[in-house]
Amino acid sequence: MARKYSKGAGKDVEREVRAFKKGKLKSGKGGRGGKVKSRKQAIAIGLSEARKEGKKVPKKKVGRKKKTGSRKKRRSASR
Asked: What are the angstrom distances between the C-alpha of 76 and each of 4, 70, 71, 72, 73?
């Protein structure tokens, strides 16, 4: 079975997780956001960087929106 992620993508994730552990990792465009507080977010940033560089990384999983109740109920509730 083929690898899901390239070795280069793994290096990118590793670099971001190390920065997170040191407390140097920030979110947002150009690092202007707040400090990254979760390991999962650090991994996501690393994968995002790898995608931008064109490395082999699976596509993001996009969830479907759930419908809540019937349309009639939703319309009457908003009025």
From this structure: 47, 10, 9, 6, 5
pTM for the model:
0.68
**In Å, what is the CA distance from 62 to each residue of 37, 46, 51, 58, 59?**
23, 18, 16, 12, 9
Q: Is residue 71 classed as helix, strand or coil in its secondary structure?
A: helix
* Amino acid occupying residue 58: P
Q: For 44-65, write each residue's pLDDT tens digit.
A: 999 999 999 999 988 887 877 7
